[in-house]
Design a protein that fits this description.
two-stranded antiparallel sheet, 6 helices, 7 strands
């Protein structure tokens, strides 16, 4: 009986010791997690605790990934706010200046009309920036419904051309469009027309009067390429990897009208449609942007 009692006491003491040892180990591992210190297997003896250590390491990795993601989002928000402030500063400053000039009351009627027209252009620019930012945020955060289906591409292109035709004529730029068979392509007509409008407006902006813009449609096995080429100022090779970044503007065109949103927004739209965009350019001679949209899987996609 005495021996059994001793063994029982020893068993209880051993159990208490083992529990305390396990508690201290878990406490030490959790401290490492909270202090963002890497857990290594040498921290504890291998054996029955290996599975526990592995799970704690997984929890640490998940928490670390969440922390990194939150930090990235924080930096993105800071960048977005900073860029929005920069984009809105110039038109707001211009409006303030024009208002002060008009309030003097010493201007001739034709000068008042001139400054009123300038104010209207700044208001339109502000509206465009705000609308573009709103679209960008909606696409980035998947807020807006984005329906994509097989749709004829010709009308989408014509809608975009119609939106910029007045600017083409005003600047005296020639538009050339090769004849092509209409095709069913996987896209959203409204959003994709905006992609083409962005590309065409950039082409008009950076092409001198008397220049030309050419639109070509080239079908391939899986995708169809819609190519928009111009005879404008072109883009330096080292900038081609940057032009689709949010708010990026070449130092050479900082004084020209623009916000650096259009190409980034276009890229977002095409990603939603499982398409993509590429650019090639020869500085001083022109640029060519190619939009690739998926073909309709039905063999009768050529209409």
């Amino acid at each position: 009986m005495i021996i059994l009692a001793v063994l029982l006491v020893l068993s209880v003491c051993c159990g208490i010791y083992q529990k305390r040892k396990t508690y201290r180990m878990i406490d030490r591992l959790l401290d490492r997690v909270l202090n963002q210190e890497m857990i290594v297997y040498s921290d504890v003896e291998e054996g029955e605790y290996s599975a526990l250590i592995s799970k704690i390491k997984q929890i640490q990795e998940v928490l670390g990934n969440h922390a990194q993601s939150a930090e990235r989002e924080k930096e993105q928000v800071k960048s977005l706010v900073s860029n929005m402030s920069h984009q809105l500063k110039t038109p707001l400053a211009n409006l303030s200046l024009y208002t002060e000039i008009l309030e003097t009351g010493e201007l001739a009627p034709e000068k008042k009309a001139e400054f009123a027209d300038k104010m209207q252009r700044q208001i339109e620019k502000l509206n465009w920036i705000v609308e573009s930012l709103s679209k960008m945020v909606k696409l980035e955060q998947n807020i807006d419904e984005f329906e994509v289906q097989d749709t004829k591409i010709k009308q989408t292109i014509l809608d975009a051309v119609d939106a910029v035709y007045a600017k083409l004529e005003k600047k005296g730029i020639r538009l050339e469009m090769e004849e092509f068979d209409d095709r069913l392509l996987y896209h959203n007509r409204k959003w994709t027309a905006e992609v083409f409008v962005n590309l065409l407006e950039n082409a008009v902006k950076y092409t001198e009067p008397g220049g030309a813009i050419r639109i070509q449609v080239r079908p391939y096995e899986l995708y169809t390429e819609i190519q928009i080429a111009d005879t404008g100022r072109g883009i330096r090779q080292e900038e081609l990897t940057d032009i689709f970044k949010r708010f990026y503007r070449s130092p050479e065109v900082e004084n020209m009208e623009g916000s650096g949103i259009g190409l980034y927004l276009s890229n977002l739209i095409l990603e939603k449609e499982k398409g993509y965009i590429t650019a090639v350019s020869e500085y001083g001679k022109g640029s060519c942007f190619s939009v690739f949209l998926q073909n309709c899987k039905n063999e009768s996609s050529v209409l």
